[in-house]
Amino acid sequence: MSTTATTDISQQVSSLRAAFDTGRTRPLAWRRTQLRALAELCRREEARLLDALRADLGKPEFEAYTAEVGFLVGEVQHTLKHLRRWTRPEKVSTPLLNFKGRSAVHREPLGVVLIIGPWNYPIQLLLAPLVGALAAGNCALLKPSEVTPTCSALIAELVPNYLDADCVAVVEGGVPETTELLAQRFDSVFFTGSTRVGRIVYEAAAKHLTPVTLELGGKSPCIVDRDVDLEVAARRIVWGKFFNAGQTCVAPDYVLVDRVQEEALLDAMSRTIEAFYGSDPLESPDLARIVNERHFERLVAFFADGDVVVGGRSDRESLRIAPTILRGVSPDAPVMGEEIFGPVLPVLPVDSMREAIDFVRARPKPLALYVFARDRAVADRVLSETSSGGACVNDTVSHLVPPDLPFGGVGASGFGAYHGRATFETFSHRKSVFDRSTRVDLRLRYPPYEGALKWVKKLLG
Ligand code: NAD
């Protein structure tokens, strides 16, 4: 992996700040040009981006395109379409006491922002925040994950070729480089990664009073009611869980199923896995591999935490793990303690919806929650009695797709949100501007106050 010398880092941040201070990122024209260039990067370099994702994660082309390159193009297009409206001052009402004047919220860029990406969607999760950072008129410094070195090197090569290199920079590296970066003053830090590192980022940003967005992980539950379309539920759970071999922050982490449906659900999911990945999933071209040996070992160790219903096979050489479903898992087992982040799915029976809800509520607030139920009232009850960053009813993962749904966590799964307009807002300061005419100047507010209070009381109602 190539890295950026830590001594160069503060120099790089200073150059970005100097570029921001010239004001060149503010005009809409600059923002549009950058966004178009980012879409151009995705389109023209599609083959190299997909190759890099295959090299680092064995991503099937379909998954690499839909969840990374194609997703980014969609975000750029949506942003370009709405940017003028988003940047217009937003008029709000003005009370009589402020006669005669106008009130509006202006969006202004924050300045120089730092975006730190993880390895599981190494291109999308680094560049989707950049879409909003550019749209809002900021300079940005990108830090790709060192765990996916091919993608990191490719981004470092391509970004300066397509985007304004004075305003967008890439720093490659791991802990030492990120530590050095976090010692600098930024105007916003956008971090996607683990809760553990999220704490480090938050603490470092606090020294500069820098606002942060933390897109973290956690254990996203999937609840299956007794009255449910089992075949559809099985397909949608298996798809969401084993997409990118389970290395997805919003993948269903575990399933809580009504005991009367446990057997039937396990059977439907086992059949679905075979239909999706064939009789030997280790050979399937549609299943990604595990990112590295450390995660491979961590995941294979989970096999011992329950009875293997399906899967349970792995190949250390190719870092592949077959989609694996476990039953008979204790809530205290290691697999139920940490975010799984791989193709292992524990299924736990519950006796009632109350028990399922209490199980979720007793744990840190997850990034996503999924509920499968025919009865809308059951789904509504789960939604209203639990808290999660986002949720789907009768589906998994798909709430990330509509660009107008802000995506983010709550509690331990993070704070702040992005996608579509939310990304633009994340990187904008909402400046309240009151603009008053000088033609009328009510004397009421000025001393001496004698006699004024009764009129003010009347005006305030
Ligand atoms: P990670 O926290 O290990 O690394 C993320 C980034 O932080 C990397 O760029 C890494 O270089 C940097 N980093 C690592 N250690 C650091 C340290 N000590 N100081 C400063 N920087 C450091 O996370 P990961 O393993 O790349 O990603 C997996 C995690 O990310 C999972 O928990 C997953 O749920 C979460 N995630 C969340 C989202 C989301 O949108 N909420 C998306 C993807 C992944």
CATH topology of the largest domain: Aldehyde Dehydrogenase, Chain A, domain 1
- Largest sheet at a glance? 7 strands, mixed
| Rounded radius of gyration (Å) | 25 Å
Structural class: alpha/beta
* CATH superfamily placement of the largest domain: Aldehyde Dehydrogenase, Chain A, domain 1
What distance lies between the first and last C-alpha atoms, to the nearest angstrom?
67 Å
Strand residue percentage: 15-25%
Strand order of the largest sheet: 10-13-14-9-8-15-16
Q: Tally of extended strands? A: 20
Helices, by number, come to: 15
Give the name of the CATH architecture of the largest domain: 3-Layer(aba) Sandwich
| Overall mean pLDDT | 97
**Oligomeric form of this entry?**
single chain
CATH level 1 name of the largest domain: Alpha Beta
Query: What form results from the Cα inertia axes?
Result: globular
For the structure shown, list the relevant keywords.
Aldehyde Dehydrogenase, Chain A, domain 1; 19% strand; 15 helices; 6-stranded mixed sheet; binds nicotinamide-adenine-dinucleotide; 461 residues
Description:
- The chain is an alpha/beta fold and 461 residues long.
- It folds into 2 domains: 6-216 and 411-432, Aldehyde Dehydrogenase, Chain A, domain 1, CATH 3.40.605.10; 221-403, 3-Layer(aba) Sandwich (Aldehyde Dehydrogenase, Chain A, domain 2), CATH 3.40.309.10.
- It contains 15 helices and 20 strands.
- It has helices spanning 6-21, 28-44, 46-57, 61-87, 124-135, 149-162, 175-183, 195-207, 230-242, 262-277, 293-300, 353-361, 376-385, 421-426, 453-460; strands at 90-92, 101-109, 112-116, 139-143, 168-170, 188-192, 212-215, 221-224, 254-258, 307-310, 314-315, 320-321, 324-327, 344-350, 368-372, 390-393, 407-408, 414-415, 417-418, 428-436.
- The strands form 5 sheets. It has a 7-stranded mixed sheet with strand order 10-13-14-9-8-15-16, with helices on both faces. A 6-stranded mixed sheet has the order 5-4-3-6-7-18, sandwiched between helices.
- Helix 8 (195-207) links the parallel strand 6 (188-192) and strand 7 (212-215).
- Helix 3 packs across helix 4 (61-87) and helix 3 (46-57) packs antiparallel against helix 6.
- The longest helix has 27 residues, at 61-87.
- The radius of gyration is 25 Å and the shape is globular.
- The mean pLDDT is 97.
- It binds nicotinamide-adenine-dinucleotide (NAD).
- Nicotinamide-adenine-dinucleotide binds at residues 116-120, 125, 143, 145-147, 174-175, 178-179, 192-194, 197, 200, 215-217, 249, 339, 341, 367, 409, 414.
- Residues 116-120, 125, 143, 145-147, 174-175, 178-179, 192-194, 197, 200, 215-217, 249, 339, 341, 367, 409, 414 line the site of nicotinamide-adenine-dinucleotide.
